[in-house]
Amino acid sequence: MTTREEASALVLRMQECFNTRQFDQAADLFTPDFLNHPLGATGFEAGKEAWVQVVARFPAMRVVADDILIDGDKVAVRSSVEGMAAPGSDVRPVLIEIFRIDNGRLAETWGVTEGPDPRH
Fold first, then answer.
1. Using an 8 Å Cβ cutoff, are 6 and 70 in contact?
2. Measuring CA to CA, which residue among 27, 29, 28 is closest to residue 12?
3. pLDDT band at 120 (very low <50, low <70, confident <90, very high)
4. Which InterPro entries does the protein's record reference (predicted)?
């Protein structure tokens, strides 16, 4: 069983790997059969490729956890997304993710982004 502190640290470590672009260092945070529902993909490599693509498009992008809620093996995170504000706006998108943790590793995720679309 993962403690609340371990679950929170796991999510923050994942965000740190993303924000510092040290994607490969995040591999051990995920189970081998990690299921990414938004991507419809299984495994860390699919998520890593999505990270690579999004930072190629938004090189200044950072994700900062504003709230972390933990219930059993689930962790819900509301994060501010920096470096993606629409031109002429200081309103940032918000990322909502839910992770399922299995044996101290991220096993599954669901997520949505809300807010202004930076492509317009």
1. no
2. 29
3. very low
4. Cyclase_SnoaL-like (IPR009959), NTF2-like_dom_sf (IPR032710)
Q: How many helices (H) and strands (E) does the chain have?
A: 2, 6
Gyration radius (Cα) of the chain, Å: 14
b/e sequence 75-104, b meaning 16+ C-beta within 10 Å:
bebebebeebbeeeeeebbebebbbbbeee
Phi-psi region of 4 (alpha: psi -120 to 50; beta: other; left: phi over 0): alpha
Q: Is 68 exposed, middle or buried (0-12, 13-18, 19+ CB in 10 A)?
A: middle
Helix (H) or strand (E) holding 42: strand 41-42
